[in-house]
Amino acid sequence: MSISDRCCGITPFLVMEINEKAEAMERAGQSVIRMCVGEPDFDTPECAKKAACKALDDNLTHYTHSLGIRELREAICEDYQKRYGVTVAPDNMVVTQGTSPAMLVLFSTILEQGDRVITSDPCYACYDNFITFAGAEPVKVPVYEDDGFQYRVSAIRKALAENDRIKAILINSPANPTGTLLSEERLKAIAEIAEEHGLWVVSDEIYHGLVYEGKEHSILEYTDRAFVFNGFSKLYAMTGWRLGYLIAPPNFMRTLQNLCQNFFISANTMAQWGGLAALKEAGPDVERMKATYNKRRIHMLDRLKNMGLPVRHEPTGAFYVLVNMRPYAEKFGGSSLALAYDILEKAHIAVTPGIDFGQGAEGYIRFSYATSMANIEEGMNRLEKYLKDFA
């Protein structure tokens, strides 16, 4: 029996490998501080849980419309109108089992064998695998800490000049792993490039709402040549509910719907009713979570600075801090993965190696502050001791 080349080309998601190693250590009785996986440590808001339970009690346990329940799609449209002043029609989106299936069906829809997509380096670990699985190729555009990990418009234009068959530019703001919030000026410039070259902008907006300084903007404010991923996992602490959505131009919707009908039928019914309640009622819960994240962010940045690990451009969104630890990675041939495993084994802290996000983050380590202040304090104490003992 042979396995397809397409599947063999999918690389492991290293953060999950680290997390599973940490779980094994915990089962063996060891204390591990986990600051690796980007998952809120808060409970899902009560309003969402009650709405899902009510759906069960009301026997709303059957398939929904393949695009998602109308009430939820209408509420998402209202949310985008309120937050960004953009008009989205309920029939121009599909509700999915998290944003990952949305990525799968979108890239399968817009990409042909040999097409290319511009992505930043570093970027979210799974983007490249979705693109290559669709038969296309990512074109990596470096982003740098000195520039706040922002796309440089000149670098995008250079990539366009050097590569043919580029179909889209992929953006993520606030970004994983950097916490970077793209400026309005750069978003406008990217939209203009897309219009000029007949490209699509694919915007991952899953961390919208988790912004502590400045204001996030949707790409839909600047161009109609865009697809948007979003969902409920991060902002509403609903990762296990697997609920996301994809906003798309009208002429793509029938194909996207066909794929979703065939591959997934519909998103989880009870989760959709829970998501509707979250959108309409969980505002106070979100504000409390956000305020707590911000306190943790400030504390982590202060502790890292005091350890001699200053972050040049402090992250203002999501719940990540990407830290340059190349001097320590040199002991392991520059490998952030080997460094991450050493930190796990010696300091019992689970962190994410920068290489998970591309060569541009090799030698960096990502810390997540989506964990309690007590865990952050203990984790920073352990890291400080690890660095002092480092040899």
TrEMBL record:
InterPro entries: Aminotransferase_I/II_large (IPR004839), AspAT/PAT-like (IPR050596), NHTrfase_class1_PyrdxlP-BS (IPR004838), PyrdxlP-dep_Trfase (IPR015424), PyrdxlP-dep_Trfase_major (IPR015421). It comes from the Bacteria. The keyword Transferase applies. Its EC number is 2.6.1.-. Its cofactor is pyridoxal 5'-phosphate. It is an enzyme of class 2 (transferase). GO terms for molecular function: transaminase activity. Residues 32-383 form the Aminotransferase class I/classII large domain. Coiled coil: none annotated. CDD domains: AAT_like (cd00609). Keywords: Aminotransferase, Pyridoxal phosphate, Transferase. Belongs to the class-I pyridoxal-phosphate-dependent aminotransferase family. This is Aminotransferase. The lineage of its organism: Bacteria, Pseudomonadati, Thermodesulfobacteriota, Desulfovibrionia, Desulfovibrionales.
